[in-house]
Structures are given as C-alpha cells and as structure tokens.
Amino acid sequence: MKIAFHAPLKSPHHPVPSGDRLMARLVIAALRQSGHEVEVASELRTFSKVPSAEQAAEMEQAAEAERERIAQHWQIEGKPDVWFCYHPYYKAPDLIGPHLARRFGFAYVTAEASYSPRRNIGPWARAQQSVADAVRGAAVNICFTRRDQDGLLEALPGARTAMLPPFIEASDFLGREPKPEPGRLVTIAMMRPGDKMDSYRMLAAALHLLPDLDWQLSVIGDGPCRAEVEALFANFPDDRIEWHGEQAPAEIGALLSRGALYVWPGCGEAYGLAYLEAQASGLPVIAQQIAGVPEVVMHARTGLLTPAGDLDAYAAAIRRLLLEEKERQGMAKEARRFVGAERDLATAAARLDTILRTHIEVCR
Q1: Which of 31, 282, 338, 353 would give a disulfide with 178, using CB separation of 3.0 to 4.6 Å?
Q2: Is the pLDDT assigned to residue 111 strictly greater than 90?
Q3: Distance between CA atoms of 248 and 346, rounded to whole angstroms?
Q4: Whole-prediction pTM value?
Q5: SS3 313
Q6: Which residues does 308 contact at the CB level (< 8 Å), separation at least 6?
Q7: How far apart are CA 32 and CA 18, in angstroms?
Q8: Could you tell me the domains of the chain?
C-alpha cells in the first residue's frame, strides 16, 4: 500500500528525541519492512500545551493551507491508499487526514489514539470532537495497550480497534553480549517536569532506603530539570551515581550491557520503550504496576512490578534482585527471550501488516 504518514504531536523528523518520536519512527520502519511505501505527508505540529481559542483558530488556518498543499501534490503524483495518523489526542488532534480521506476516498487509520471524556469541556472540547470523529471514521484504530483500547471503546462504542503491543528494533541490543557488573543499576529518562520528575523522586527515595547494599546507579538522560534531578541524589556518596547525560543509541546499548537491573518507577508511563531496550539487553526491570507499564514488563518473568505509590515495596523489590542473583539471572534470560520473540520489529511488522490488510480490505 501507499501510505501517507502523519504524527501531529511530534514529527518523526523532529530534532528533539522522545518516546513519541522513536515510536513514530518504529511504526514507519515496521510498515516499510512489510513492503509498504511510506511518505511523511506533513510536518505540521498541532500540539497545544494549554487550551486557547486564538491558537486553535490559527492552527485550523494552518491545517487548511496544509490540506490544500497536499491535495495539489496528490493531483500530480497520485493519492495514497491510506492516511496513517500516529498518536492523535486532545492536545494534538489530526486536522488534516480525516478531511483528505473523505475528499479523496481512501482509508483512514490511527495508532495510539486516545480519548479522555473529562476533557470535553471548555476550549479543549473542539479538539476532543476532532479526535472522536477521527476515531469513529477510522478503518481501524491500532492500540498499543489494553488500557488505551478499553478507554477508546468505553468512550466511543463501535470504534474499530486492533492490538499491536509496543515493540522496538531489538537487534543491536540482542546482538550485544550482556556483561552485568554486580550491583550496577541503570535508568534512562528525560529530565523534565511532571511524571518524569515524579519517577526520579521515587527512585532517589527508594535508593535512600538501601544504604547497606553495594550498588551503583548509571543515569542516562538530560533535560531542563537536570539540576533538580542531581539535587535529589546529592546526599549519596560520589561513587554511587554516574551521570552520563544524553547518549546516542550505540552508547546506550553499551551502558545497558553493563547493567544488572533497570530501575525506573514509571509514574504515568504510557508504556516506556526504554523498558524493552533494557530487557533486550538482559536487565530485569523494577517498576510500578501502573499505567501502561504492565504491557511491556512481565511481572515475575522479566522483572518485578510493585503497587503504585508504594515506596517501601519498590525499594524491597530492588533489594530482592540485588541479593538473589539466581533469580535475577533467570529473569535476565527471560527478558531477552521475551523481547526477541514477542516485541521485535519483525514480529510487529507482520502483525501490523495483517491488521492493515484485514481492516482496509473490509472497508473497500
């Protein structure tokens, strides 16, 4: 199929790394691996941090101009078979694809769409309606977590959905032999306000409960809250914490290969691709049983998930796998098998291809 791809929250070409950008790139890679022709149809970003009627009007004007630009391009080059929108939600609705799909008569598809009925008030209401209309009209809405699928179907009964579990390009991680250093903990996360800072706070507090154990923490990541994050760990001895800053994928793989455990509480995580990267590298994960984390970490198989907000339980889980080396090794082996067999790009590409061919053929 010829597929026009759009990510209204963050283009796959955006210069700032994030989970959204990575997932958009992975979806494109999965589509291409199945033989589909994919073009990023628009770089328009419709993200609004706070609701504003004035900004919404400006965004609609920009979207209208973009729709006309794309339409003229297709009149010369030919239209696609599918418009594929990644991650539309109330702060970043797709203002382009549904219009063009109706105008040119081809299939519309979403991936990781989310809908929150509590946002159906005030300035967000119009954006919410755009998301609802797009989801209802889609040939299929591809969900990465059961939580998202349940949310869509509860709010918009009759929406056509299919499941595609989160995945990564795992070959570089699986191809590197793990050489875990005893007591080496690793975490990877941007340093920004909100859920990320909440996880850093919880991690620091948990490690303060483990002064008697021999551990060292490698922190990979950077961001506007770096000074605040460093302050959380300031009371630890200097040899406890290694700050690596932002790293390229190859360096991340090398750092993970040295790790014994991956520790990230996961406050508010949609799912977290770094969990899959860590498991592919042979690191059992210690996280909370919260949000979408259980979709990527198999409790008691590839790591330990603790009750949300329970600091003592989280610290106890870290203690358990630092002390029980045989159990840690068993989980490390299973973690690599899980990602390689169930969450690699090749497996996801086959699933995604089946989803598209099944649902789009039904709609033709």
Answers
A1: 282
A2: yes
A3: 23
A4: 0.91
A5: helix
A6: 288, 289, 290
A7: 21
A8: 2-165+345-363 (3.40.50.2000), 171-342 (3.40.50.2000)
